[in-house]
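Good morning N.,

You mentioned wanting to compare the apo and holo forms, so I went ahead and generated the holo version with PMV. This is what I fed in:
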Amino acid sequence: GTLIMSQATARAHSNIALIKYWGKRAGPRNLPAVGSISVTLGALYTDTTVVFDDTLSADCAQLDDKPADTARLTPFLDLVRARAGIDTRASIVSANNFPTGAGLASSASGFAALSLAATRAAGLELDARELSILSRQGSGSAARSIFGGFAEMHRGTRDDGSDAFAEPMLEPEDWPVEIVVAITDTATKSVNSSIGMSHLDERSDYYQAWVDHSESDLAAMRDAIAARDFETVGALTEMSCLKLHGLMMSTRPGLIYWNPATVAAMHAVRSLREAGTPVYFTIDAGPQVKALCAPGHGEAVARELADVPGVLETRRTALGPAARVIA
Ligand code: PMV
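and this is what came out, ligand included:
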């Protein structure tokens, strides 16, 4: 079938994992080797418009006003087209309200917004779980950006991926923690997450230990979130971050995502904590430091991190809402 012209626009927010996802199961459909738990960020989002247009002979895409590569987008749109029973090509126009590709999780908000906009434009009405499953196939972390507040991504066990989806844990107002992002470098990261985490079983002696301890880390985090126990949530968050980076460093060839300012910001967070501020750090596959702050402490943390040598910019954010259609 074809769609002569049909469009939708969606907004999805970025998220950061407190218990990290890293590593894939063998086979297709981008199946994670471990579950993860994240918070969705209110101030960082992607707006994406998808137009199915029967006059197009190929998909085309624009990101932040520049032409974008469709190599990862066409196979993703093919999933939507197969489901809708159409073969119409699409035009994608996407904009982040934050620097793209600099470790601020643009693939998470990007694929979540694309899933929602593309399915709506194709005439489909997927529920949140189905959207999460679809988003996962674009980027593992995107499965969590379908939801607001705190979310948990399930590893699942089925080969078809039907049980590898995220679910909401808490709404933003249930526990209004804050996040401060300290940007230490705005260049695009050198090793993207898909490459960094491929075939880890053959590339890191630490990988099996990472997988083996994942369930107990997730269980401890679930309990701490349910109890609103900020110190335990924070301690588990730093532990999962450092364990992830230990795994990355142990991979052949070793991945080092930190720069000197990243390390300085980590120490600054710990100094603040020793002086009584409830704040803990986490870092993804890039040099930015994200500080998890107890409710009401974001402003003071942002002020301190802005003064750390090498920190270029800080962004403070509350938790954000679920992905939604905006036009
Ligand atoms: O969604 P991906 O494939 O870009 O992987 C995300 C990996 C981390 O950001 C490092 C961890 C996470 O759980 O988000």
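Residues 230-250 form the longest helix (21 residues).

Happy to go through it together on a call whenever suits you.

Best,
F.
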